[in-house]
Amino acid sequence: MKKRGVWQAIKKTPAMKTIGHHWVFDTKLDESGNIKKFKAQLVARSDCQRPGIDCTETYAPTASLMSLRLLLATACLQHWKVCSFDVSRAYLYSPVEETVLMEPPTHFIPSLERKVLCLRKALYGMKQAGRCWWLHLLGILEGLGFTSCKFDMSLYVFWRDETIIAIWIHVDHSVIASNSPTEIERFREALCEDFEIKWSENMKQIMGLECTFGEGEVTILQIRLTNNILEAYPRRIFQHDSPLPPILTMTSSVKGVVMDARPFRLVVGSLAYLVSGLRPDLAFAVNYQARHSTALKAAHWAILDHLVGYLLKTRGHGIILRPGECALNLWSDAGWGGKLERSQLGFMLKLGNAPILWNSKQQTVVALLMCAAEYIALSDSMQHLVQAINQLTQLAQNFKKTIFCDNQAAV
């Protein structure tokens, strides 16, 4: 912090309004889940900040996993080189526009007694820290010739003649892909002039996704998260061949004693994150379970036991990206709910043979006919397709687009 000029110590006066601080302790794990190092971070207390006085704008874009999968799939199809890098203590590089005064850690630095810290750079914990870092990084990248994607502000692209560099950024973690290894090296050297970075030529993990690069293909898994779910599951697990039983009778009116729903919701929430990462085969089952997380009965736990048993048997399943045709294919389907329930929709979006986006959920409106349910599903899935098309347009010049629907009336 002293090296980067995070704060300036000034004399304290009675009229000064300050915010507090505290320490956060954590452990950093390696790819195998073993402790790599212990971490301690001094953070500001954002609950003491006053909107409009020491914090104003706080928005910063959040990276999407769809954009990451789209970038990796494109890189695999186009035979691009893929690297990753982390910016060490990224927030501490970011200038702060507002005047923020913080109480000093006198127990750690006794010389700061009777002084306050005027923060010149963003400190972890501040409400605007994420935005300050985003704006600072945006200025650096624009100075290097990058432009942000209009539909995902965390995806940046650089074009020069036939050379392209694409960067996906999640806070201080980034993935970079390019058809020119020379341009990647040139970018790395330029970035090192502004930041202290940790560069990896062989990306192994990003956002909980474990990546393995082989001969012409990329395998993406979530073994650690899967194992954590299985180890924390509070009931006995038996392996199953499908996510749900062949016959589903679980409704909100099922008889039985109401049970504590908190452990159930914890498991379903973890499974939902697993689905968002790379398990489309669990999408419908997890969505079905989430609808019954209130008034929990023993029958609901039995269905969840079946789902976790399927997860146990398929814990090594993931996504494999292979070179192929650069084409966006969308599959859309719906199940009519009839008189008692709302209809269910589901879709799968693939780039080549690689799934990049999927979903399964109940429709928000009542469909009177099967045709209407299919049309609503097409409308919902097309919104995601348009977003993927706009992102892919900045990464690839030529690609096909095909939509598959099994209802002739809706088509």
TrEMBL record:
InterPro entries: DNA/RNA_pol_sf (IPR043502), RVT_2 (IPR013103). SUPFAM superfamilies: DNA/RNA polymerases. Residues 6-232 form the Reverse transcriptase Ty1/copia-type domain. It holds the Pfam family RVT_2. This is Reverse transcriptase Ty1/copia-type domain-containing protein. The lineage of its organism: Eukaryota, Fungi, Dikarya, Basidiomycota, Pucciniomycotina.
